[in-house]
């Protein structure tokens, strides 16, 4: 008896495959949403569909660990449909979505509301649960309910979620550490910023640069250092969001050297923009933490080169045009769209020789997949991995144009930037969600919660620290 010959759903021929460590010409076969084979074209099985990608590059789809899709609650800014459509168009196959929605994702009821909205997703997603002072008793239920990690707002930002005091952060870390999940941090010190911005406002300083003045690097350095200490003592895994200053690199390097499981991301706007943006873009550039002086940009590139910064994420934070544009800087909402422009902007940097394609794959796919327990199902071009693939044309020159962004809040500080290199096809688990530069609208709803595949992470050992729960249990009390 002869076995049925294996057939694939799709074979892509002619491209160069790029991983974090290698680049080679190969065909790739896809079956049932996964990568079936990688190799010489003549070694590929028959396929229902053969795609010619001669001269193009195949990368694992980008995993953006930091997006705000505003849904539920602020759906005039963005929805799951528009946000994930923008991701698909940008070569992003998985996103991690933030809890500062309305209601905030602080309990299971709110999480279920969000999971309902997320049924329209084009791409796969993880959901951050909120770690706040008032919902520490909900964290384990949120894990049970399907979050992929937690987010703690150490400093105030859009949504005005109160920043938990250190005691609550420590206790939250104790709870999450037991389960091995990662806590992502908006690492800015709330009280320093509050005092500075109050003084500036009282003195009628409402020009764009007043925003930068209210948030000097020490704001971030203090919070990163404090978070690293609390993580070190509790064994919590942490992720520092939107690293904006060169000064944060030292506490990051020191914590990594001490063995703290700390990862860090920066965003294209910190790598590509500097203080001139405040004169050129006015209130549109307002973002937390702020875009800083040129010297920080140079140091951040250094942190990218030496691995202190693990990932590039976007902090996709859309707002309406009116919310972004105001002569009074304090009245302009913070953040801007980004999930669709990250890849062309960063590929342009590769064309300019600032980083390699392998480094790029490491920072946008491999590192986030590993940090959130998705590797090797995601973040890799390997047989058996999900066929989350982006086909890239490295020669394609496109001008960033907010009119072409699928995001609702499409104000971008990169308007009219000429980019070199663009995604042309995006596949999520073997299905085209963007094809020849066009959104595949029938693929709406294809996205799945990555918690369905997430490996349960192993908790890390802690040092001599005794948790609040253990202290109570020792006395025969309940936590
Ligand atoms: C974000 C938002 O709008 O939700 N804004 C921002 O300036 N980055 C919140 C955040 O990430 O701090
Ligand atoms: Zn933030
Ligand atoms: Zn954010």
Which tags fit this structure?
binds zinc ion, binds N-carbamoyl-L-aspartate, Urease, subunit C, domain 1, alpha/beta, 2 domains, globular, 479 residues, eight-stranded parallel beta sheet, single chain, TIM Barrel, 19 strands
How would you describe what is shown here?
This protein is 30% helix and 22% strand. The longest helix has 18 residues, at 217-234. It is built from 15 helices and 19 strands. The chain folds into 2 domains: 7-55, Roll (Urease, subunit C, domain 1); 60-383 and 394-418, Metal-dependent hydrolases (TIM Barrel). Strands 8-9-10-11-12-13-14-15 form an 8-stranded parallel sheet. Strands 3-2-7-16-17-18-19 form a 7-stranded mixed sheet, with helices on one face. Strands 5-4-1-6 form a 4-stranded mixed sheet, with no helix packed on it. α2 (108-117) links the parallel β9 (92-97) and β10 (124-130). It is globular, with a radius of gyration of 22 Å. By secondary structure, it is of the alpha/beta class. One zinc ion is lined by residues 66, 68, 98, 315, 317.
Q: How is the topology of this model organized?
A:
Layout: E1 7-13, E2 16-18, E3 23-25, E4 27-31, E5 34-39, E6 46-52, E7 57-60, E8 62-67, H1 80-89, E9 92-97, H2 108-117, E10 124-130, H3 139-145, E11 149-153, H4 166-177, E12 182-186, H5 190-202, H6 208-214, H7 217-234, E13 237-240, H8 249-257, E14 262-266, H9 268-272, H10 276-281, H11 294-305, E15 311-312, H12 321-324, H13 342-351, H14 357-371, E16 389-399, E17 418-428, E18 431-435, E19 438-439, H15 468-474
Parallel strand pairs: 1-6, 2-7, 8-9, 9-10, 10-11, 11-12, 12-13, 13-14, 14-15
Antiparallel strand pairs: 1-4, 2-3, 4-5, 7-16, 16-17, 17-18, 18-19
Helix pairs in contact: 4-7, 5-6
């Amino acid at each position: 008896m002869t076995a049925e010959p294996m057939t694939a759903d799709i074979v892509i021929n002619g491209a160069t495959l790029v991983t974090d460590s290698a680049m080679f010409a190969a065909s790739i076969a896809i079956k049932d949403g996964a990568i079936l084979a990688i190799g010489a074209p003549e070694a590929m099985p028959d396929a229902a569909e053969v795609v010619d990608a001669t001269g193009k590059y195949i990368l694992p789809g980008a995993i953006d660990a930091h997006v705000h899709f505003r849904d539920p609650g602020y759906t005039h800014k963005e929805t799951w449909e528009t946000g994930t459509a923008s991701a698909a168009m940008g070569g992003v196959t998985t996103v991690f979505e933030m809890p500062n929605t309305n209601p905030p994702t602080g309990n299971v009821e709110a999480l279920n509301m969000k999971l309902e909205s997320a049924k329209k997703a084009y791409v796969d997603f993880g959901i951050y649960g909120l770690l706040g002072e008032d919902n520490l008793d909900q964290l384990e239920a949120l894990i049970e309910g399907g979050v992929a990690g937690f987010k703690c707002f150490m400093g105030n930002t859009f949504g005005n979620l109160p920043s938990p005091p250190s005691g609550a952060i420590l206790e939250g870390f104790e709870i999450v550490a037991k389960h091995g999940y990662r806590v992502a941090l908006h690492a800015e010190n709330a009280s320093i910023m509050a005092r500075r911005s109050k003084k500036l406002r009282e003195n009628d300083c409402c020009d764009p640069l007043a925003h930068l003045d209210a948030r000097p690097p020490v704001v971030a350095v203090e919070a990163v250092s404090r978070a690293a200490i609390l993580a070190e003592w509790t064994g919590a895994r942490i992720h520092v969001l939107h690293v904006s200053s060169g000064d944060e690199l030292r506490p990051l390097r020191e914590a990594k050297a001490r063995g703290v499981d700390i990862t860090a991301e920066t965003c294209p706007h910190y790598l590509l923009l500097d203080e001139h943006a405040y004169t050129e873009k006015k209130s549109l550039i307002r973002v937390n933490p702020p875009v800083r002086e040129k010297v920080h940009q140079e140091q951040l590139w250094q942190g990218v080169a030496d691995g202190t910064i693990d990932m590039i994420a976007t902090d996709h934070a859309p707002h309406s045009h009116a919310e972004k544009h105001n002569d009074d800087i304090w009245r302009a909402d913070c953040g801007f769209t980004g999930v669709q422009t990250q890849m062309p902007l960063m590929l342009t940097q590769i064309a300019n020789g600032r980083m390699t394609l392998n480094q790029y794959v490491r920072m946008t796919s491999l590192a986030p997949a590993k940090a959130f327990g998705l590797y090797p199902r995601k973040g890799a071009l390997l047989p058996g991995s999900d066929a989350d693939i982006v086909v890239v044309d490295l020669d394609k020159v496109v001008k960033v144009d907010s009119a072409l962004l699928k995001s609702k809040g499409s104000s971008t500080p990169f308007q009219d930037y000429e980019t070199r290199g663009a995604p042309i096809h995006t596949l999520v688990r073997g299905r085209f969600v963007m094809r020849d530069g066009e959104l595949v609208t029938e693929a709406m709803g294809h996205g799945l919660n990555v918690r369905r595949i997430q490996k349960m992470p192993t908790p890390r050992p802690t040092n001599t620290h005794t948790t609040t729960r253990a202290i109570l249990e020792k006395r025969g009390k309940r936590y």
